[in-house]
């Protein structure tokens, strides 16, 4: 993701990427989120209309940042010629590895914005749009997996699978936030083990039980 440096000003009409970059820099440099669109726009040589052309509020911009993280990850993955031939397990592994590389490149911003408020759920509100994107991605994986199974008895629920992947992502996100290992190697191990375990268990365990277990892990991690 493009970033601005120092106190650079927008000379031309800003696009969405410009606004995202400037906003992220503001948060990191000021160690706080801007309070007013008017002041934010004025400090960056633009008008409020320039801002509202792309985002209806700072909340909308924050959600767009996570969407951009997701889109950048998918773009990187799909550039690989091998990706199309990967198994669903390999695709999910690749997604997590790539997504957390993107997060690591923006770690200071991510850590700040996910710990800004004392209430964890309030910090997670910005992930609502990302949740839809990740769940839709997960649904494409289970759709492909179900096509390989001739009997509906052995097919898995797309809705429950996608919810399970989302809960798994939240667990990995919290793990990564707390990871102090060099190059975040522990997170890579957690990704591999969790994805392999989930795919192994999916073939032998009702998905509802997996989702319940995932919720338990998430609550334990947040404690």
Explain what the structure shows.
- The protein has a domain at 82-222.
- The protein has 11 helices and no strands.
- The radius of gyration is 19 Å and the shape is elongated.
- Mean pLDDT is 85; it is low at 2-8 and 150-155.
- It has 223 residues and is mainly α.
- Helix 4 packs parallel to helix 8, helix 5 (88-105) runs antiparallel to helix 10 and helix 9 runs antiparallel to helix 10 (185-202).
- Helices cover 69% and strands 0% of the residues.
- The protein starts with 15 loop residues before the first helix and ends with a helix.
Q: What share of the residues lie within helices?
A: 55-70%
**Structural class label:** mainly alpha
Oligomerization status of the protein chains: single chain
Q: What are the secondary-structure elements, in order, as H or E?
A: HHHHHHHHHHH
Task: Tell me the distance between the termini.
Answer: 32 Å
The DSSP helix count reads 11
How would a crystallographer describe the biggest sheet? none
Low-confidence stretches: 2-8, 150-155
What percentage of the residues does DSSP assign to strands (E)? under 5%
Number of strands: 0
**Radius of gyration from the CA trace?**
19 Å
Net shape = elongated
**Nearest-integer average pLDDT:** 85
